[in-house]
Amino acid sequence: MFDLRDLYQQVIVDHNKRPRNFGKLTEFNHDADGYNPLCGDKLHIYLQVSDAGVIENVSFEGEGCAISVASASLMTDALKGKTMQQCEEMFGQFQHMATSDLAEAPDEEVLGKLTVLAGVREFPSRIKCATLCWHTLHAALKDSAEPAKTE
Ligand code: ZN
Asked: Which of 5, 104, 123, 148 could form a disulfide with 139 if both were Cys (CB 3.0 to 4.6 A apart)?
């Protein structure tokens, strides 16, 4: 059987080395901090959301392990042009993928490229690295003054 794991690994390494949408947006109307104390990952997410509730632009800054940076890079790529509702659906599917049984195939239709992170299921301590950006996104959308924490 063809093992996709090497390919997944390559995508994660690539997104960690050259994160997409990295840096502060010049124009944004939501932002929030996120922190994963288990690993030390820190993120800041910037969002520009239209009146109609569509994510027009999204970026992030921060430092962390390869998984946290690659996950934020992949997430920001995936969110552009999505509605709040689509974004919630992705978050739900992503969390499900990160915590579900290994035998269960992730929902590729909703998650697209984000399925490369399905491998974190094998490493429980890395799940929070992969989901930190999503918790931070939530905090940003709610304009939370408190940083998002995975603990
Ligand atoms: Zn981490």
From this structure: 148
pLDDT of 94 strictly over 50: yes
Q: Give the distance (Å) from ligand 1 centre to CA of residue 110.
A: 24
With 80 as the cut, is the pLDDT of residue 3 above it?
no
Dist. CA 33–CA 90, nearest whole Å = 20
Identify the structural domains of the chain with CATH numbers, from first to last. Answer: 4-144 (3.90.1010.10)
C-alpha 83/C-alpha 73 separation (Å) is 18
pLDDT confidence bin for 49, thresholds 50/70/90 = very high
Distance 35 CA to ligand 1 centre (A): 10
Ligand 1 centroid–CA 128 distance in Å is 7
For 42-49, the CB contacts below 8 A with 24+ separation are: 43/68, 43/72, 43/132, 43/133, 43/136, 44/136, 45/72, 45/76, 45/133, 45/136, 45/137, 45/139, 45/140, 46/140, 47/137, 47/140, 47/141, 49/84, 49/141
pTM higher than 0.90 for the full model?
yes
